[in-house]
């Protein structure tokens, strides 16, 4: 059973999606909220990759010579997490925003 989220957590949680879709650039408050949401989302992905890397290193140490066979799933998961774990910022998405285009940060 999940624990309920506290009021302090909900107050800091971004209320806008991590994209510039539908953001009026003249509304400074909404623009800053979108920028913060993008940065927070990138940091979450970075920290997730870090956690997977720590588990992978524990598996390598624990398994010893058998790490190639035993830690394969963690290794693949870490390689997938590495693709998204770069903190790129928001300037590229903000300056090159195309309405209706995918702005999830996957630039290549």
Question: Could you provide a short overview of the structure?
Answer:
With 108 residues, this protein is mostly helical. The protein contains five helices and no strands.
Description:
The chain has 108 residues and is mainly α. Helix content is 59%, strand content 0%. The protein contains 5 helices and no strands. It has helices at 7-12, 28-63, 67-70, 72-84, 91-95. Helix 2 runs antiparallel to helix 4 (72-84). The longest helix has 36 residues, at 28-63. The protein is elongated. It starts with 6 loop residues before the first helix and ends in a 13-residue tail after the last helix. The relative contact order is 0.15.
Count of DSSP-assigned helices? 5
Secondary structure: number of strands: 0
Could you give the distance between the termini? Answer: 39 Å
Helix- and strand-based class? mainly alpha
Radius of gyration, in angstroms, nearest whole number: 18 Å
Given as residue ranges, the uncertain stretches (5+ residues, pLDDT < 50) are none
Q: Main β-sheet, in a few words?
A: none
Please describe the structure with a list of short key phrases separated by commas or semicolons.
5 helices, elongated, about 60% helix
In terms of topology, how is this protein built?
Layout: H1 7-12, H2 28-63, H3 67-70, H4 72-84, H5 91-95
Helix pairs in contact: 2-4
């Amino acid at each position: 059973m999940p624990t309920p989220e506290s009021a302090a957590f909900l107050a800091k949680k971004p209320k806008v999606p991590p994209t510039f879709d539908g953001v009026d650039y003249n509304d400074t408050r909404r623009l800053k909220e979108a920028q913060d949401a993008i940065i927070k989302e990138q940091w979450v992905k970075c920290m997730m990759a870090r956690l997977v890397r720590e588990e992978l290193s524990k598996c390598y140490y624990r398994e010893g010579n058998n790490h190639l066979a035993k830690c394969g799933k963690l290794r693949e998961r870490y390689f997938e997490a590495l693709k998204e774990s770069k903190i790129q910022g928001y300037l590229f998405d903000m300056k090159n925003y195309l309405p209706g285009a995918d702005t999830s940060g996957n630039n290549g």
